[in-house]
């Protein structure tokens, strides 16, 4: 990538010092995230991943029979209602197959077909109950058809358009330790790449990064899709992205959730790149105008006691006269972070919910803070938290779609107060 011409133009290698605390963090409880109910649901509904064509077909026919049996209680319209359900379920199946063959999205079909059929089957029951209450089979069948058409429109939009509609969000931050004469610094934040394979989303991402010409790039974890954590092709493809990242003041990264970023394999993704992986480490960058920037990079174990102790240890060695930016994968530490002198806290993890409803927002966030910090900026006391919507898709049986929640990268301009 080209070296940008900015106010912080660097004519020689930047002066960066790295500091680790002599204190050890509180021992981490293993498997904290895996024990949460949402992760268990992802695993349970991922069982159809190994089902072949015939097993999936038999399962779909069995569910269609259930739909027919329910409507049969109405004494009319059962065959047509079951046919409507079956037709739209098959279109979901064909769409999932086409996404793979066209190189747009990847992963096993079975779990996605299961997840997408739950709302469709729910529509069968709701329309049937309406038909029974009103005593009109025609009204029930019409309502069922409308529900299924609307569902297809949502699925097609959420699977074909939004996952590739990468947004660039721009924000201004004024660190308290910087003087009013300090030159602006352009910091680009990436999170949750969740690479399955290289798609046009990743190609667009690299093109956009090059166009933005940031002074500094930071990445806050989750590099592989959960369905491809140990897949050699996916690992090779994520390395193709990482090796192309460069910036005048460097590129810095942290590890995300342990199931997505296994500690024994993920660090090797950065071998041979220009990226510094910060694992409970502070990078103090001396800027061209004399200002200092401290990047506090932490492993995210989702064990709040252990992660909070690591944060306290690192803050003791972060210079007081520097701007402080915390890089930690999840927003879960915000209730603690806001009590310290941290200017900016960058994270992802929630994907903004990935599926959002008008007027309500994220349905689920996979964070213990729930909807308190689901997406975007939050300023509490002297700390600004920004929760990125991320770039890729989670994997396993999490919906392979985005709804009212397109992927994003964030360009921050840091300047003196």
Break the fold down into its secondary structure elements and pairings:
Blueprint: E1 15-19, H1 37-44, H2 53-72, H3 78-101, H4 109-134, H5 137-161, E2 167-173, E3 185-190, H6 200-212, E4 216-220, H7 232-242, E5 251-254, E6 275-277, E7 281-286, E8 292-297, H8 304-315, E9 323-327, H9 334-337, E10 344-347, E11 356-357, E12 361-362, E13 376-380, E14 383-387, E15 408-414
Parallel strand pairs: 2-15, 3-4, 4-5, 5-6, 8-9, 9-10, 10-14
Antiparallel strand pairs: 1-7, 3-15, 7-8, 11-12, 13-14
Helix pairs in contact: 2-3, 2-4, 3-4, 3-5, 4-5
Shape: elongated
- According to CATH, what is the topology of the largest domain? Purple Acid Phosphatase, chain A, domain 2
Rounded average pLDDT: 94
CATH class of the largest domain: Alpha Beta
Strand content: 15-25%
The helix content is 25-40%
Which structural class should the secondary elements be placed in? alpha/beta
What is the tally of helical segments? 9
SSE ordering:
EHHHHHEEHEHEEEEHEHEEEEEE
């Amino acid at each position: 990538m080209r070296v940008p011409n900015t106010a912080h133009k660097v004519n020689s290698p930047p002066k960066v010092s790295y500091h680790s605390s002599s204190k050890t963090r509180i021992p981490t409880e293993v498997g904290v995230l895996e024990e949460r109910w949402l992760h268990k649901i992802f695993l349970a509904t991922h069982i159809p991943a190994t089902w072949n064509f015939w097993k999936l077909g038999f399962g779909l026919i069995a569910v269609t029979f259930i739909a027919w049996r329910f409507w049969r209680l109405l004494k009319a319209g059962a065959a047509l209602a079951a046919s409507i359900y079956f037709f739209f379920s098959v279109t979901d199946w064909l769409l999932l197959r086409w996404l793979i063959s066209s190189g747009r999205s990847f992963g096993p079909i079975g779990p996605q077909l299961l997840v997408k059929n739950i709302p469709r089957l729910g529509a069968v029951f709701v329309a049937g109950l309406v038909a029974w209450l009103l005593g009109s089979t025609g009204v029930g069948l019409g309502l069922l058809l409308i529900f299924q058409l609307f569902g297809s429109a949502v699925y097609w939009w959420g699977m074909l358009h939004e996952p590739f509609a990468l947004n660039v969000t721009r924000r201004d931050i004024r660190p308290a330790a910087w003087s009013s004469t300090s030159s602006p610094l352009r910091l680009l934040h990436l999170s949750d790449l969740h690479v399955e394979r290289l798609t046009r989303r990743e190609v667009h991402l690299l093109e956009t990064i090059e166009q933005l010409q940031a002074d500094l790039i930071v990445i806050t974890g989750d590099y592989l899709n959960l369905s491809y954590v140990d897949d050699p092709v996916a690992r090779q493809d994520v390395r193709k992205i990482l090796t192309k990242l460069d910036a005048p003041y460097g590129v810095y990264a942290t590890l995300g959730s342990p199931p997505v970023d296994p500690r024994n394999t993920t660090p090797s993704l950065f071998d041979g790149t220009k990226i510094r992986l910060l694992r409970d480490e502070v990078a103090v960058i001396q800027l061209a105008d004399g200002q200092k920037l401290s990047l506090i990079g932490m492993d995210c174990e989702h064990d709040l006691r252990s992660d909070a102790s690591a944060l306290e240890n690192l803050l003791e060695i972060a210079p007081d006269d520097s701007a402080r930016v915390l890089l930690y994968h999840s927003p879960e530490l915000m209730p603690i972070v806001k009590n310290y002198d941290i200017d900016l806290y960058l994270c992802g993890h929630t994907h903004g919910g990935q599926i959002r409803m008008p007027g309500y927002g994220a349905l689920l966030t996979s964070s213990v803070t729930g909807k308190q910090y689901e997406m975007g900026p939050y300023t509490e006391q002297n700390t600004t938290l920004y929760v990125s919507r991320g770039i890729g898709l989670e994997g396993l049986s999490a919906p392979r779609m985005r709804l009212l929640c397109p992927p994003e990268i964030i360009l921050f301009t840091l300047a003196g107060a």
